[in-house]
Write a structure and sequence with these properties.
This protein has about 180 residues and is mainly α. About 90% of the residues lie in helices and about 0% in strands. It is built from seven helices and no strands. Helix 1 packs antiparallel against helix 6, helix 4 (about 90-115) packs across helix 6 (about 145-170) and helix 5 (about 125-145) packs across helix 6. It is extended. The chain starts with a helix and ends with a helix. The model has no long low-confidence stretch (mean pLDDT about 90).
């Protein structure tokens, strides 16, 4: 690799690492506003995606009418979902948390049943412990979805800080880039 490519790569790594660390600090310091921002950005995306789908349906001359109608209806529904996100950003976040909590509970039940049914390739004790912890975690998420989302955001922020710092620490020294 030539030295110019190496320098470009180093700049890319440094910039992305610094951005990851900055976003991580923001997520750790302000988890709830960070979640609301993500929900608002998701809402804007859905509104734009829905509008583009409706536009494509209206302008889709030469395509089958069933496709145009389907695309238009889906576009309106997607756009309305986006508006719901923008009106109350907490709604999609709570729905996500509830779905995740239900997923944990179902997965835990399946793991416990699998442990006692003798699922091939699994050990009874670890599967039972994993299943019970999954059910308990799912119940905790269902009982306090807002807190669960805040904890998730803080943990994700910590992960961003660690990954960004690791990228900077593992970056080869500049002298190695000149060779």
């Amino acid at each position: 690799m030539d030295s110019r490519a190496v320098r470009t790569f180093r700049v890319f790594v440094v910039v992305t690492a610094v951005v990851a660390i900055a976003l991580g600090v923001v997520a750790v310091a302000w988890p709830r506003p960070t979640l609301v921002l993500v929900a608002v950005l998701f809402g804007v995306y859905l509104v734009v995606a829905g509008a583009l789908r409706v536009f494509a349906a209206v302008r889709g001359h030469g395509t089958a009418p069933v496709w145009r109608w389907t695309s238009g209806v889906v576009g309106v529904l997607v756009g309305l979902a986006g508006l719901l996100c923008l009106v109350d950003p907490a709604v999609p976040l709570v729905v996500y948390a509830v779905l995740a909590g239900l997923g944990f509970v179902i997965e835990g039940i399946v793991a416990v049943v699998g442990a006692f049914a003798g699922h091939p390739g699994s050990s009874r004790v670890p599967s039972t412990v994993s299943g019970v912890l999954s059910v308990l975690g799912g119940i905790a998420v269902l009982v306090a979805p807002g807190l669960a989302l805040a904890v998730f955001t803080v943990l994700a922020g910590i992960a961003l800080i660690v990954v960004g710092a690791a990228a900077l620490l593992l970056l080869p020294p500049r002298a190695a880039a000149r060779r």
